[in-house]
Amino acid sequence: MSQTRPVALITGAARRIGAVIARTLHAAGYDLALHCRNSRAELDALIGELETQRGNSTLALQADLADAERLPALIEATLARFGRLDALVNNASIFHQTPVGTITPAAWDAFFAANARAPLLLSQAAAPHLKISRGAIVNITDIYAERPLPQHAVYCMSKAALRMATFALAQELGPEVRVNAVAPGNVLWSENPVKAETPRILIEQTALQRQGTPDDIAGAVLWLIRDAGYVTGQTIRVDGGRVLGA
Length: 246
Fold this sequence. Notes:
Elements: E1 7-10, H1 16-27, E2 31-36, H2 40-53, E3 58-62, H3 71-82, E4 87-90, H4 105-133, E5 136-140, H5 153-173, E6 178-184, H6 193-196, H7 199-205, H8 214-227, E7 235-238
Parallel strand pairs: 1-2, 1-4, 2-3, 4-5, 5-6, 6-7
Helix pairs in contact: 1-8, 3-4, 4-5
């Protein structure tokens, strides 16, 4: 068990932004509990990569976060393996269209279970241990938690709920635990064409006139966990100024 290196649990860590957050925190000296739902092959490959860099530094966790009864076990497994918990990154999320007229109770339940309820309950389970380490929680929200994305009403509402959970948790868990959110803008254009809108809109309505990268998000997460000792209850927009556009 690691007694000296800080430990972070990251949900949805197998691919995309989650995997880049994992690599960034690992390079910064964190041991990692890495969660996936279905992408176990990708998670195992990532863990193999990280273990080559530093042995005995990772733990693989697999669970459907919609199953609320499974959530405390993720915290317990992390503590059993490493003996401590210093950071929780609630990155896992579901994202797809729900145009008005097609929204079902099942869609509502799925979005809110994964995007809002699971981060809240994981944070609740982690809180006593994060208080001991004076640790931090980072929730990955979205700039569309503040403004609607057409045909994505339920997704936007679920991320808005997570944004409010960030504020509420920061208020209740201070002063020992800091809780913040990172709100990505246009990231992973090739894999997420809906949020990318069009190249013209990206250039015309984003102040930095370019798409963001997963490294931009991961850098903000690391800063909030490790360096932002007097920052809590904040949502950091990492969107290149997209929120300033129409």
